[in-house]
Every structure is written in C-alpha cells, then in structure tokens.
Sequence to fold (295 residues):
Amino acid sequence: MDAVVIDGKKVSEQIKAELKVKVESLKKEGIIPGLAAVLVGNNPASESYVNGKARACEKIGVYSEVIRRPADITQAELETIVRGLNQRPEIDGILVQSPLPGHIDELTVTLTIDPHKDVDGFHPHSVGMLLLGRPTFRSCTPYGVIELMRRYNIDPSGKEVVILGRSNIVGKPLAAMLIQKAAMADATVTVCHSRTKNMKEICRRADILIAAMGRPELVQADMIKDGAVVIDVGINRVEDPGRDKGYRLVGDVDYEACRHKATFITPVPGGVGPMTIAMLLTNTVYSAEQRRLKA
Fold:
C-alpha cells in the first residue's frame, strides 16, 4: 500500500485562509500586520523568494515592504536600515534575506533585529527561548514540519525521530522543538550529519525520518523501516537533459522508492516548501496580535 502524500501546498493554503480571518479581525481594531524584507544584491533565488513572500502577504491582507539595496552596501548602512525598521510601530516582522554578500557579518545583522520582530526565528534570543521551551518565534521551515505533522495527526510523542542534517535553519531548531515536553513534541530525537557512522542503521530505527541534508535522493528504501513517516525538507537541482530547463527538482529522499514502504511521505516540490512562507506569515500575524495586546 502506498503512503499517504502530505500535501504541503494544500495545508499552506488552509493556513493562509485562517490567517486572513485573523488579519481582518485585527484591521477592525485598527491594526494592519506589517512585514518588511531587506534584499541585498541581485540573487535570483532570493529575489524570487522575497517576491513570493510579498504576494502571499497581499493575498491575506498583510502590509508588505521590500527594501532593495546593492551588493556593495556597507555593514553600517545595513544595520541602520534594520534599526529604522525596529522603530516603526507598523512593522511587526523584519527579515533580512540570506545569503548576504561576503563582507557582511550576518550574525551582527541578525542581532540588530528587535527580537520582538524576529519573524524568521533566527535571533539568538528566539533560539534560546526555543531551547528553554518558552513561547517565541520559531524558525519557519521546522515550524512548518511540525504543523504538517499536526494537521495530518502524526503525533511524535514517544516516537523515535531521526533528523538528517544539523543546520541552524532546520536540523538544530527542529530537534529543539521535538524534544520539548509539549504537544507535538516529547519525541526521542537523533540528529545525523556528514560525520555520522552507521547512518543507514540509525535511519532504520526511525518512526519518523526527516531529511534535511541537501543531498539529492540520499534516503533510499533500504534506509527506512516499513510504516515509517518520511518528511523531506531537501530541494535539489539535478541535471535532466530531457527537461526543457535541463534540470529537475528532487528532495533528499528517493520518493518513488520510499513511498511504497512509508505510511506518510512529503513530495518535492509541494511538501515542506510551501509551509515556510505560511509559517512566516503565521509569525507575522502573531507579532501583530502581540502589538494589539500592548496597545
């Protein structure tokens, strides 16, 4: 029996519809949620991503502002822009799109963001509060993974979860979320990485396997046990002369091979990917709700 396909696109649209209702309620109280994105340079992928965020904001009624600056912007100039956004009460969320040019210290820029507007969830304050199990902004991609599991009634409590990848964007925060004593958590978590020995054997133990290493089709059918939940966070371009673009997108999981053994599986594209923007919007609307409470 083939796995149930976890439809991230469908879930993300549900979330946006729910957020639109919240935004309309906030507007009745004179509050319009606002998100500002700072884009440095002309990276096509970053441009596409930021434009996607802006369109998503417009769709649910969130004010969106994109600040574009050339790649030769100085550290001081970029920090000044962020500080200015910190001071604007109508801006509830600030994100500085990565990657930044090599001469920019990204951590210093992140530290400049007001933690109360850190809707990307990358500020050390947010990361620390997450580890402590306190309410905070959650990194959007791992937050999206948790939300997908919640909406498909995949409860990680008491389960063995294996995460492939230890990045600050996905692997580490996701592990922190799943080990908490809380709903949609209470899991036993193992994090594998490029130096892990016996990775195949570790993966075979997983009730829930989450792949986020950026290695095309790393996870093969012999690496998962029958009935496992398989969540693929990876998105990779592989050459395909038969396609018009000359490439195709694949995840970190061999989807066709693994879908016959798993109970649930995410596709690439259309699985975790659409959830990142949905959770960014969730964080932004939450920030606006907190502004309302302080008013």
About this structure: The two ends are 54 Å apart (CA to CA). The first helix runs from residue 8 to 28.
